[in-house]
Amino acid sequence: MSPFRLLRSQWEPDAKRLAQAMLYDPTELDPAGTRPQEATDERPDFRARLHSAD
Q: Is position 54 within any domain?
């Protein structure tokens, strides 16, 4: 098992319980983990994601 999978298996149950207690849907907190078929590394251009604090 990879180091990431080992660590995730340790904290994931606690994270799921906390999400349920805070009334979050699992897909809001972990979209790639709950819907891996839809996971993508594609992101909008960085400049398009910038937001001014003004």
A: no
What is the domain extent for residue 40?
Answer: 3-49
Q: Is 36 within the bounds of a domain?
A: yes
Q: Which pLDDT band, with edges at 50, 70 and 90, does 3 fall under?
A: very high
Q: Please report whether residue 44 resides in a domain.
A: yes
CA distance 10 to 6: 7
Compute the half-sphere exposure of residue 27: CA atoms within 13 Å on the CB side of its CA.
5
Categorise residue 23: left if φ over 0, alpha if ψ from -120 to 50, beta otherwise: left
Q: How far apart are CA 33 and CA 50, in angstroms?
A: 26
* Structural domain count, the chain: 1
What is the residue-wise DSSP string for 8-19?
HHHHHHHHHHHH
